[in-house]
Amino acid sequence: MWVLSTDRAELHYFSSPEEIPDEYATLSHTWNNKPWHGPPEQSFKEVWEIQKRCAQDGTNPRDFVSEKIRRCCELAEKHGYNWVWIDTCCIDKTSSSELSEAINSMFRYYSLAAICYGHLRDVDTVVFSLEDLEDRSNYCCHPRYANFRESIWFQRGWTLQELIAPRFFVFLSSSWDVIGTKADLADFLEDSFGIPATVLRLLASPSQFSISYRMSWFRERQTTRPEDEAYCLLGLFDVHMPPLYGEGRNAFRRLQEEIMKQSEDTTLFAW
Asked: For the chain, what is the mean pLDDT?
């Protein structure tokens, strides 16, 4: 498992999350896949090359990585974390074995992190008061909730497990200001997306709910590649299977088969 040092944005390798000294943070975000989304994401290779170049001239790599990586490192360091895991640059995707391990371990990576920052690139800073959160009649019509609810972040497949798995999750605006925690916003998230507030507050495990019900949490989400519709759900159903990019929607059939091996819940066939 590769992680970045928050003070220098340098890549370091540890054999497992448990081997990382001290606690680590993670980032949940939507990738910049289009020019209008912002600068393209930096890969493992690009960050590694920056690190090597800076080692030669004595400069700090954090000053040369993308704004997203730098801002995340700075925030995590400010909160006292020495390490951060970011999916775009902490997985060497040229290695099929490393990619497979990361996809099958991602739910675990997020669940073992001390904090997960959820960066919503299309949401301006929103302030929710305790009074707002307690009045559920506001959820359907208040402009602040609408802006938050309509973020592309809530429409992506991978962000589902990134919301559910972490112990502590903080939503951040496009300018990296704190919006609120998933615990604070749990009732709103349940009303909007059907994910039980008890799951978001870690008072219940996803496994306590039927397979069909858990699948419904994914219903309105999308992935760029069809295979990822299955791969992004592996952790939610606690199954492991090797990713085979190019198999298309057959990946979802394989996911169903793996779930069947460990569950007699017939609601699976509703999907």
From this structure: 92
pLDDT tens, 190-210?
999 999 999 999 999 999 999
Q: Are residues 213 and 265 in the same domain?
A: yes
What do you get for the CA distance between the two ends of the chain, in Å? 33
Phi first, then psi: give them for residue 179, nearest 5 degrees: -95, -45
Judge residue 75's burial from the number of C-beta atoms within 10 Å of its C-beta, 0-12 exposed, 13-18 middle, 19 or more buried: buried
Instruction: Please state, in angstroms and rounded to a whole number, the distance separating the CA atoms of residues 132 and 190.
Output: 15
Q: Work out how many domains the chain is built from and give that number.
A: 2
- State whether 213 and 171 are in the same domain: no
221 in the same domain as 145: no
Mark whether 199 and 214 lie in a shared domain: no
pLDDT tens, residue by residue, 24-42:
999 999 998 776 667 889 9
Domain stops at, among 187, 205, 223: 205
Query: Whole-model pTM?
Result: 0.92
User: Could you please report the per-residue DSSP string of the chain?
Assistant: -EEEETTT--EEE-SSGGGSSS-EEEEE-----SGGG-SPPPPHHHHHHHHHHHHHHT--GGGTS-HHHHHHHHHHHHTT-SEEE-TTTSS-TT-HHHHHHHHHHHHHHHHHSSEEEEE-TT-------HHHHH-GGGTTT-HHHHHHHT-GGGGBSHHHHHHHS-SSEEEE-TTS-EEEETTTTHHHHHHHH---HHHHTTSS-GGGS-HHHHHHTTTT-B-SSTTHHHHTTTGGGT------TT-TTHHHHHHHHHHHHH---GGGGG-
> For 149-160, what is the mean pLDDT?
96
